[in-house]
Amino acid sequence: MQWYRELNKTERRTFIAAFGGWAIDALDFMVFTFVIATLMTLWGIDKGQAGMLGTVTLLFSAIGGWLAGILADRYGRVRVLQYTILWFSACTVAIGFAQNFEQLFVLRALQGLGFGGEWAVGSVLMGEIVRAEHRGKAVGTVQSGWAVGWGVAAILYTVAFSILPAEWAWRSLFWIGVLPAFLVLYIRKNVPEPEVFQRAQAKVQAGETRASFWTIFSPALLKTTVITAVLCTGVQGGYYAITTWLPTYLKVERQLSVLNTGGYLMVIIFGSFCGYIAGAYLADRLGRRANLLIFSVLSTVSVYVYTQLPLTDGQMLFLGFPLGFAASGIFSGIGAYLTELFPSGVRASGQGFAYNFGRGIGALFPSLVGFLSQTHGLGWAIGAFATGAYAVVIVTALLLPETKGRVLE
Asked: Of the candidates 182, 139, 146, which has an alpha carbon nearest to the alpha carbon of residue 27?
């Protein structure tokens, strides 16, 4: 962490805020993946409906990310970030009070608006504040906060379902969603708007025409917008196809207990954390494209072995580490890459659109996996969709330029 000690006070405080926000968002979001099997039992919903609950959050997070990016380019990164965190927190708590599938469906959709907005704005904020030589490491390490939040969710899941009846255990996990609201207080006090954004706003106030959201579809940026959107579709489609259904796969198809499921997931989550950190360093050392290509190949091999080969429980426990390492490490270079590919006037709009278009299309993967698993088995469905998604990443990464070390104008 020598690079962290080289950050100035503003860069460090922004890093802490972004890391904390991403960790708590992961906690709130990933608890749903742990309670899918419980809801299927308590409410009698099938795998297709369960997949829809995962998909609707991701679809609306795409909308939330697009809107948050547009608003952040107009009103500021820090202000919009606070609003998205408060919205996400309130909706997560409300999910704990849902009484049926329909209520849960609506609340999961509303939760997605804030979830998508938080990443879109937080990633741009980090990318603009941290200097070029540390941007990949800083933004990539912030992504590791997702593994921390996921790990806390796994621990809370194991504890809650060990001491509480299932009906109350799943609800209690969502009530913890009040925690992100306290992060807003830290952000308000310690995180300023990036200088590059302030300079862009000063030009607008001096009479320069403000760039429209639609500028990202202009001839100069259309190729970048389309390819990055498809790239993000592959990255997120593969990830959500794996992680949304993994706890259910372990519990239902592998017949693991709650305690054992939590243990297996902790190995995968530890691998995810290491993957984020390794990817953050590789993104700055080897470049953004090399990071994507390396982790795409690793992800394809790992998910195939984990879901398609006849493994023993011991082998699955061991192979959980490379699965988590590869599926998560691929994200480390995305934030910095998108920040460097779009100009300042539409940076949040372009990054928000590309990442969340990918999330919106990738959101279909959990539902498709759920429906396909009813005829082909859950392991086969996960492997098929994830492998296809990572093939898309490889192709699109080769079509984009390398931006390592680029100084933002």
From this structure: 146
